[in-house]
Design a protein that fits this description.
The protein folds into three domains: about 260 residues, Metallo-dependent phosphatases (Purple Acid Phosphatase, chain A, domain 2, 4-Layer Sandwich); about 70 residues; about 45 residues, no CATH class. It is built from eleven helices and 20 strands. It is globular and about 80 Å long. Strand 18, helix 7 and strand 19 form a beta-alpha-beta unit. The protein is of the alpha/beta class. The chain has a six-stranded mixed β-sheet with strand order 6-5-4-1-16-17. Strands 7-8-9-13-15-14 form a six-stranded mixed β-sheet, covered by helices on one side.
Length: about 400
């Protein structure tokens, strides 16, 4: 059985007010061409089709048209779609019945009353257990293993078994995900691979954006990653995964197929931070014809000079690139220790003392001009409060 594994399309994503419909259309066309070339038996999307749970009508149309194109590229192929944490489960469930006429299976939520509907049998090819994202408290006890055990009973011909889930597993590389740690990524708490159970030949995961095999799982557990970068920190190649498995209990053969982005996300410098003058020179030297998104990584002592934004706009005015933002880092990264306050002590503090504490903690000098400005703003706020 040949499976094309992808996830985290995030259709409708906007990058610093820049519409990305052209990039997303290009991504979908490339994926359709890959389907046409490789003719997989199963096309598997492991969650986060959309970037928000309320995508616009144009984005929903883009998705529907892409599914039609995928079907037309390989009519016998089974298309299996599960909802991710960014998706609306209801939107996936609404069109479940009509989509099935085109061999499209959409699973938006876990059905506790009929958990075996998550088992999709591909005739004479294998089994796919499709699990959408769900809060942990909504997942029945031993859910994964119950489904795997049921498939084991049905799988009398030793066909390949695929399990798909949109979740975080311990040991994954969550590079580029903000506010993440080894226990929780993107609001999803990590689970162990062992807790998922035994009996699958390939675990097709979604949610983590970096394509990867997970530790100690050899080539059996994989995040396909997002085919299109969502942030500047996703500075790695983006791809979809082609999986080939002959029979149950055999090692899958894995091939990654890179997806090209017509508008790459570029950080200047590409590694680390530079002074404003150095970053400015890099921006000036950036090729005029490349239609990239640009982020400048600048090391500062205090604040970004007010004239910087004007100079950047002037530099890029004759270039095809789109400037997005300045990513700053202070030269003095030492963090001062701060003494915690009780609620009673905090209530006795004057506003200016609280401001001074915060700025000292941030290694910013609270000079006379700043204190005067603070007092003026505080006076205006007090006057407005009295007039209400």
């Amino acid at each position: 059985m040949k499976i094309l594994h992808t996830s985290d399309w995030h259709l409708g994503h906007v990058l610093y007010n820049n519409d990305r419909a052209e990039e997303q259309q290009s991504m979908l066309e490339q994926i359709t061409s890959i389907v046409q070339d490789h003719k997989p038996d199963v096309f598997l999307i492991a969650g986060d089709i959309y970037h928000t749970s309320q995508p616009s009508s144009s984005i929903q149309t883009l998705f529907a048209n892409s599914i039609m194109s995928l079907h037309n590229a390989n009519p016998k192929m089974q298309i299996i779609i599960t909802a991710g944490n960014h998706d609306s489960a209801i939107k996936h469930e609404i069109f479940r019945q009509p989509w099935q006429a085109l061999n499209v299976h959409t699973i938006g939520s876990i059905n506790r009353n009929d958990i075996f509907q998550h088992i999709i049998e591909i005739e004479n090819q294998g089994f796919v257990i499709a699990i959408p994202y769900s809060y942990e408290r909504n997942i029945p006890e031993d859910f994964y293993q119950t489904l795997l055990s049921e498939v084991a009973k049905r799988n009398t011909n030793s066909l390949p078994v695929i399990l798909s889930a949109h979740t975080t597993v311990f040991g994954c590389d969550f590079t580029s995900h903000q506010n993440a740690d080894e226990k929780i990524v993107g609001g999803i708490e990590a689970i162990s691979i062992e807790s998922i159970g035994e009996g699958y030949d390939y675990l097709a995961l979604g949610h983590i954006h970096k394509p990867q095999f997970v530790d100690d799982a050899k080539e059996k557990v994989r995040y396909s990653g997002t085919p299109l970068p969502i942030s500047f920190d996703e500075n790695y190649s983006h791809s979809i995964t082609l999986v080939d498995i002959d029979s149950h209990n055999q090692t899958p053969q894995i091939q990654t197929i890179e997806i090209e982005n017509p508008h790459p996300l570029v950080s200047l410098p590409t590694e680390g931070f530079a002074s404003w003058q150095e970053a400015k020179e890099l921006l000036m030297k950036f090729p005029d014809e490349i239609e990239a998104y640009i982020r400048l990584n600048i090391e500062i002592e205090d604040i970004v000079p007010s004239e910087v934004e004007y100079q950047i706009k002037s530099i890029v005015s004759n270039k095809k690139c789109r400037f997005c933002y300045i990513n700053t880092k202070r030269k003095n990264t030492q963090i001062n220790e701060i003494t915690p306050l009780t609620i009673a002590e905090f209530q006795q503090e004057e506003p200016i003392d609280i401001a001074r504490r915060f700025l000292e903690y941030s290694n910013v000098e609270f000079d006379e001009q700043m204190q005067e400005t603070f007092n003026q703003v505080l006076e205006i706020i007090n006057q407005e409060s009295q007039n209400e």
